[in-house]
C-alpha cells in the first residue's frame, strides 16, 4: 500500500485569484450584454409573429396601407410591444400582394456612455383570403 506523498499534494494548485477575477468580469460582462440586448430580440420575434399572423386575413389585399398598419398596431398593443414606432412599417400594394417592410433599430445604454445598437429589417409578401 502506498503512502500519500505530501509534496505532490502541495504542488497541485487551482486557479489564481487573478484568473478567477478575470473569469468573473468576463462572464459578468457577457451576462450584462445578454440582459440588455435579449429583450430587443424577443420583441422582434413578437413583431414578426404579429405581422406573419396577418397572412390569410379576410380582405387583406383590398385594405389600404393605413388599415393594414392599424391592424399591425392593434396586434402589437395586445402583445405589449410599446417602444415600437409605427412609422418603421411601410405597407405597399403590388397587384394582389401586400408588401410589408419593417426596418428599425433598438438602442440600449450598456455601460455609462457605451451603447448597443441592434438593427432589424424584415420584408413580408402576403395575400389575404
Q: What order do the strands of the largest sheet run in, or round the barrel if closed?
A: 1-2-3
Overall tally of domains: 1
Instruction: Return the string of H and E elements.
Output: HHHEEE
Estimate the helix proportion, in percent.
40-55%
Query: Rough shape?
Result: elongated
Number of strands: 3
3D architecture notes:
The protein has 129 residues and is α+β, with helices and mostly antiparallel strands. The chain has one domain. The chain is 43% helix and 26% strand. It has three helices and three strands, in the order αααβββ. The longest helix is centred in the first third of the chain and has 36 residues, at 17-52. The model has no long low-confidence stretch (mean pLDDT 86).
Keywords:
single chain, 129 residues, alpha+beta, 3 helices, 3 strands, 26% strand, elongated
Please summarize what this structure is.
With 129 residues, the chain is α+β, with helices and mostly antiparallel strands. It has helices at residues 6-11, 17-52, 65-78, and strands at 89-94, 97-111, 114-126.
Sequence-ordered SSE layout with sheet pairings:
Blueprint: H1 6-11, H2 17-52, H3 65-78, E1 89-94, E2 97-111, E3 114-126
Amino acid at each position: 500500500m502506498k503512502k500519500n506523498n505530501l509534496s505532490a499534494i502541495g504542488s497541485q494548485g487551482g486557479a489564481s485569484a487573478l484568473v478567477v477575477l478575470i473569469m468573473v468580469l468576463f462572464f459578468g460582462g457577457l451576462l450584462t450584454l445578454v440582459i440588455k440586448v435579449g429583450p430587443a430580440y424577443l420583441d422582434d420575434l413578437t413583431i414578426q409573429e404579429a405581422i406573419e399572423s396577418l397572412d390569410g386575413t379576410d380582405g387583406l389585399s383590398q385594405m389600404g396601407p393605413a388599415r393594414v398598419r392599424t391592424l399591425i398596431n392593434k396586434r402589437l398593443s395586445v402583445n405589449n410591444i410599446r417602444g415600437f414606432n409605427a412609422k418603421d412599417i411601410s405597407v405597399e400594394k403590388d397587384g394582389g400582394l401586400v408588401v410589408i417592410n419593417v426596418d428599425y433599430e433598438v438602442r440600449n445604454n450598456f455601460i455609462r456612455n457605451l451603447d448597443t445598437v441592434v438593427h432589424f429589417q424584415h420584408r413580408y409578401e402576403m395575400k389575404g383570403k
